[in-house]
Amino acid sequence: CKDFSLCYWNPYWMLPSDVCGMNCFWEAAFRYSLKIQPVEKMHLAVVACGERLEETMTMLKSAIIFSMKPLQFHIFAEDQLHHSFKDRLDSWSFLQTFNYTLYPITFPSENAAEWKKLFKPCASQRLFLPLILKEVDSLLYVDTDILFLRPVDDIWSLLKKFNSTQIAAMAPEHEEPRIGWYNRFARHPYYGKTGVNSGVMLMNMTRMRRKYFKNDMTTVRLQWGDILMPLLKKYKLNITWGDQDLLNIVFFHNPESLFVFPCQWNYRPDHCIYGSNCQEAEEEGIFILHGNRGVYHDDKQPAFRAVYEALRNCSFEDDNIRSLLKPLELELQKTVHTYCGKIYKIFIKQLAKSVRDRYATSPKEK
What we know:
CATH class of the largest domain: Alpha Beta
Number of domains: 2
Protein name: Glucoside xylosyltransferase 1
GO molecular function: UDP-D-xylose:beta-D-glucoside alpha-1,3-D-xylosyltransferase activity
Shape: globular
Keywords: Glycoprotein, Glycosyltransferase, Membrane, Signal-anchor, Transferase, Transmembrane, Transmembrane helix
Distance between the termini: 42 Å
Family: Belongs to the glycosyltransferase 8 family.
Function: Glycosyltransferase which elongates the O-linked glucose attached to EGF-like repeats in the extracellular domain of Notch proteins by catalyzing the addition of xylose.
Oligomer: single chain
Structural class: alpha/beta
Strand content: 5-15%
CATH architecture of the largest domain: Alpha-Beta Complex
Strand order of the largest sheet: 3-2-1-4-7-6-8
Order of helices and strands: HEHEHEHHEEHEHEHHHEHEHHHHH
Helix content: 25-40%
Largest sheet: 7 strands, mixed
Radius of gyration: 24 Å
Number of strands: 9
């Protein structure tokens, strides 16, 4: 028998005499496999400097535990953290559900020092992700103090809800204007009524790279790589929250380019510290927890810390994840003396659903 390819053009029942039928069946399976589309990867970026290794690893673990599609991590970190990240992530390689790339912290050389000291060390790195990750179409950027309480797939799917002008998505900085920061104290333009928070930012970076942005520095529209430094020079004495303030200025002038998602996708202490003010989280639970103000590491907001420690201490074994909820609920019940603790059930409502959907069925039952 000839061993390959002649039967591409012949149905099985019309094979030439010197072609084996066995090869044709194999080739049919081979041709079918070629038609299967590769599974889309979800790209997740984080910037870690200083003492943020453990917090970042817990965030990455929460992303892995619940997500369905494979993840590609883009980790920007100070050089001294690279070895630790590599050791920890390589120890998770048995999962085969993610890949990662480590990058150094890099800023435009002519203004590197100025960018690095803006707000927190290295935080403004996120502004340059569309210019550094040129081959990446879409990206979810998160701060290190983020915890996913439902699959990354779900926020990733919001990309499909963008209209033709939208290039990025963020949540409002505040739901209640009376305690809002931007509307009371900002000395620069900001998006909407209360500004937006950039701790969870979903980006169509292809659109970001192509767009020409309206601005208040020139009548000429500027592309992403050209607008950042002029913005910093104009507003550096007026901004408090660094790169987040610059993003607010950009989207103030280009509001049609922003998709705003609800507060449950970026739930912070501000949503409960003075009483509950995120209605969507009350109804459906918290989707993404954002422990800003260092609340995972002090006793000011014990409900946030309880969720963080539960996920930090959780291993990847199915039984371990399934048994996560009851001890966590008992810990949360100890926090009812705080405003956030009074509504502790919203901290586990979505988490319980995620565990149930992903891990409720044992392998033998599947």
